[in-house]
Amino acid sequence: MIGPVRFSPAVILLCLCFSLSRAEIKPEGGRELISPQIIRSMQSYMFDQRLDGWIFSGQGAFDDIQSEFLGLKGTTRHRWIIFFFTLDTIKKPFLIYNPDDEQAFSGINFYPLPYNGYREMEEAIKYNIKPSAFVIFANYSNRMEIPEISTLDAGVLELLSSLGFKIQSSGTLLSFYNTRWTMEEAASHKQAAAALDSLLPLAVGKLKERLAANKKITDYELGQYVEKSLKKLGLEALESPTVAAGEKTRLERYSPSRKESRPLERGDLLYLEVQARLKGQPEAMFAKLGWTLYLGESVPDSLGEEWDRLDKGNAAALELLESRIPGGKTLLGCEVDQTA
Asked: Treating both helix axes as pointing N-terminal to C-terminal, what angle do 9-23 and 118-128 enclose, rounded to 10 degrees?
C-alpha cells in the first residue's frame, strides 16, 4: 500500500496551475484579508513547520478568530471555506462559498470558488486545494485543550480527513501571529509601560497624604484619581482601573462605582491594576501593570509568606523563559503556568 506522497514545489505548482485552469478562477480585487507583511510571515512559519496551508471554515455568524484575524463581519447562510497556501507564489487565499453569501465577502481580495451544492463544494476542495496541500493548519484543538481556538466542527474535520488532509491545530500559528509586534508597536508599548510605572508613586502619595491626615478616601476616589493621572501622563484607558481592597482582592477584576465604594483603611490589602496606551494613537500597544499594597506600618507575616511564595513562582517562570527562548526551543504557555 502506498502512503501519502509529498510533492516537490515544482510538481505542486504544476498541479495548482492545472487546477486554476480547470476551475477558471479569476482573482477578485479589494482589501486583503491579512496584510501582505503578515501573510509572508505566516507562509515562512508554515514552511518551517512543513505545513501546506491554513484553512478557515464557518456558517452563520463569524466567530471571534474570523472577525478579529480576518476582519469578517456579519453572517452567512451557507458553509464557506477560506484557504491560505504556504506557497508564496499563491498571493491570495481561495474562497469556497455559496453565491447567496456573496455580500458577506464583498470587497475582499481572493480567488473565488462558488458552489451550488454539497458535491460542488467537495469538488472545489478536492480539485483546487487538495492537489497542493496535505498537512494543514485548522482552528481545531485536540480534545478541545484550547477551547478558544477549537471552532472547526466535526463534520468539516471528517470531510477534510476523508479527502486525505492531515489536520494540525493552528494554536501555534495563532500564537506566532498574536505575539509578534512591529518595532513601532514594541516602542509604543515600552513608552506606555514607562509612563504607567510613574503612576504608582502618585497613587501611593495620594494614599499616604489622606491616611496621614486621617482623612477618608474611598476605592472609587482612588480610581478616579488614577484615571485623571493617566490623562496627565499622556495615556488613555478603555476601561476603569482595578482598585480592589479587602475581600474584593479575590475577584479577577473589580472597578468600584460611586454607589458601591468603600473607604480604604489602615490594615487593608489593596490591589491596583491599570492598562493603558499612548493617548490618541489607536494602533499603539497597551501596557498593563499591577501593584499589591499593604496599608500599614509593616506587612503581616501571613501576607509576607504568601508574597514570597508568589515571588518564587514568578522567578521560576522567568528563569524558564530565559533558558528556553534564546535557544529557539518550543515553549508552551501551560509550561510557564505549571512552573509558576
From this structure: 150
* DSSP letters spanning 112-181: EEE-SSHHHHHHHHHHHTGGG-SEEEES--GGGSSGGG----HHHHHHHHHTT-EEEETHHHHHHHHT--
Contact 55, 6 (CB under 8 A): no
Please calculate the CA angle 67-68-74 and round it to the nearest 5 degrees: 20
Rounded to whole angstroms, the Cα distance separating 21 from 12 reads: 14
Q: Which of 337, 338, 331, 4 is nearest to 172 (CA)?
A: 331
Eight-state DSSP code of residue 233: T
Classify 31 as helix, strand or coil. strand
Cα distance from N-terminal residue to C-terminal residue, the chain: 48
Report yes or no: 66 and 84 within 8 Å, Cβ to Cβ: no
Q: What is the pTM of this model?
A: 0.65
Q: What b/e sequence results for 115-150 when a residue is b if at least 16 CB atoms lie within 10 Å of its CB, and e otherwise?
A: beeeeebeebbeebbbbbbbbbbbbbbeeeebeebb
96 to 73, 100, 222: CA distances (angstroms):
17, 12, 54
CB atoms within 10 A of CB 32: 17
| Residues in the chain, overall count | 340
- Tens place of pLDDT for every residue, the chain, 340 residues? 334 433 333 333 333 333 333 334 445 566 777 777 777 777 888 888 889 999 999 999 999 889 888 889 899 999 999 999 987 777 789 999 999 999 999 888 899 999 999 999 999 999 999 998 999 999 988 888 888 888 899 999 999 999 999 999 998 888 777 777 888 999 999 999 999 999 999 999 999 999 889 899 999 999 999 999 999 999 999 999 999 999 999 998 999 999 999 999 999 999 999 999 999 998 899 999 999 999 988 999 999 999 999 999 999 999 999 998 887 777 777 889 899 8
d(CA 310, CA 301) in angstroms, rounded, equals 14
Q: Given CA atoms 119, 125, 131, 137 in this order, what sign does their dihedral have? A: negative
Amino acid (one-letter) located at 102:
E
Residue type, 239: E
